[in-house]
Design brief:
There is one protein chain. By secondary structure, this protein is α+β, with helices and mostly antiparallel strands. The chain has one domain. 30% of the residues lie in helices and 35% in strands. Strands 1, 2, 3, 4, 5, 6, 7, 8, 9, 10, 11, 12 and 13 form a 13-stranded antiparallel β-sheet that branches. The N terminus is likely disordered.
C-alpha cells in the first residue's frame, strides 16, 4: 500500500506488521525463491481474458488499495497488541508528518502515574529531537514503499481460484456487502523483481474481496515451505508460519486495518530461535483535528488519553 506522504492508518499498521516480519534485517524478508509445481486444480493465470475473472478482481482491488486515501480526514484510534509477554494498548493519531502514539494501558490496566510520565517522555523525545522525528518519518516511508511493492505484486505472484462468498460484518469488510473468497498459491511463472517480493513465492492462503467496492477485506496466508533469508546464512522461517490481516469500512470513504495476527517461527544465525506471535486489534476510529503536526498530536494525546482509556475499558467490560 502506498504512502503518498502520510498514508492511512491501515498502511501504517501493515508497515509495522511487515517490520515485525523483517527479522531485524533489511529489506523485508531476504529470502530465496522456491521451485514450485502446478497442481491439477484449475488455477487462474494472469494471461486469461480480461473480464471480472479472479485475477482481474485482484488487480482492480490492488489498484484501489494503493491509491492515495482521503487525506482530508485523519483518524485517532486505539490499538491493542497481545503477545506471549502480555498486552499493550495505545492511543494513536495520524499527523501530516508521522503516526503519533501513546501507551495507555499494560495488560489491560491503566498506567500508573510513574509509567505515564515515562511514556510522555518517550513520545516527547520526537519533538525535542528533530533528528529522531526525521528518522521515524524516513522509516515509515521506507516501510510504505515495501508494503506498496508487495501489494502491487499480488496479481502476478499468485494463481487464484474462486472459493465461494461470505457476508461482510462489523470489523470485516462492509456490513452486509458480499465478499468474494479466493484461494491463492504461488505462481511458478512469477519472477520477483527484488528480494522484497521473494516472500510471496513461499505463501498460499485466501483473500476476501468486496467486489462492489474492489477493496480487500482479508488476506489470510501461511508459509508452505521453509523460507531462507540472507541466502540461508542469516536464518530461515519455518513452514507453517501464518498471518491474517482484516480491513473494514470505518467511514469517510476509508477502509482501515481492524485486526492483524502473526505467528512465525524460525532461526536466526543458525542458533537463535525466532518466535514472533502477536494478535493486534484496531478500533474506536474517529476523526482527528485536520493538518496536525507531530508536536500538536503529542499534546492532543496527553490531553485525551485518560478519557479515551476510561471510555474504552468501560466499553470492553460491558462486552464481556
Amino acid at each position: 500500500m502506498s504512502d503518498n506522504r502520510n498514508g492511512t492508518c491501515s498502511r501504517l499498521i501493515l508497515r509495522r506488521g511487515l517490520r515485525n516480519m523483517r527479522l531485524r534485517t533489511r529489506p523485508v524478508l531476504r529470502i530465496l525463491p522456491f521451485a514450485l509445481a502446478l497442481s491439477s486444480v484449475p488455477w487462474t493465470l494472469a494471461q486469461q481474458p480480461k473480464s471480472e475473472s479472479p485475477v482481474e478482481l485482484v488487480r482492480k482491488t490492488v489498484q484501489n488499495e494503493v491509491r492515495p486515501a482521503n487525506e482530508r480526514v485523519k483518524f485517532m484510534f486505539i490499538e491493542r497488541k497481545e503477545t506471549p509477554r502480555g498486552s499493550q494498548t495505545k492511543l494513536l493519531v495520524e499527523t501530516r508528518e508521522a503516526m503519533a502514539g501513546m501507551v495507555i494501558a499494560v495488560n489491560d490496566r491503566p498506567l500508573t502515574p510513574k509509567e505515564r510520565q515515562a511514556e510522555i517522555g518517550r513520545i516527547e523525545r520526537f519533538v525535542k529531537n528533530p533528528e529522531e522525528l526525521k528518522k521515524k518519518i524516513k522509516d515509515e516511508r521506507e516501510d510504505a514503499d515495501r508494503t506498496a511493492r508487495i501489494m502491487k505484486a499480488l496479481p502476478d505472484a499468485f494463481l487464484y481460484q474462486p472459493d465461494g462468498t461470505e457476508v461482510g460484518k462489523e470489523r470485516l469488510g462492509k456490513p452486509g456487502d458480499e465478499l468474494v473468497r479466493l484461494k491463492f498459491r504461488p505462481n511458478p511463472r512469477y519472477t520477483p523483481p527484488s528480494r522484497v517480493e521473494l516472500v510471496l513465492t513461499g505463501m498460499e492462503g485466501t483473500l476476501l474481496i468486496d467486489a462492489n467496492q474492489h477493496r480487500l477485506a482479508r488476506i489470510d496466508g501461511k508459509l508452505v515451505k521453509e523460507v531462507g533469508f540472507g541466502w540461508g546464512i542469516l536464518g530461515h522461517l519455518n513452514p507453517g508460519g501464518h498471518f491474517q490481516v482484516d480491513q473494514s469500512d470505518v467511514g469517510y470513504n476509508r477502509w482501515e486495518v481492524t485486526h492483524m495476527d502473526l505467528a512465525i517461527t524460525g532461526k536466526l544465525l543458525f542458533f537463535k530461535s525466532l518466535n514472533i506471535r502477536s494478535n493486534e486489534t484496531y478500533s474506536n476510529f474517529r476523526p482527528a483535528p485536520p493538518n496536525l503536526t507531530f508536536a500538536q498530536a503529542v499534546e492532543l494525546l496527553k490531553k485525551e488519553e485518560a478519557v479515551v482509556a476510561q471510555n474504552y475499558f468501560n466499553h470492553e467490560n460491558q462486552q464481556k
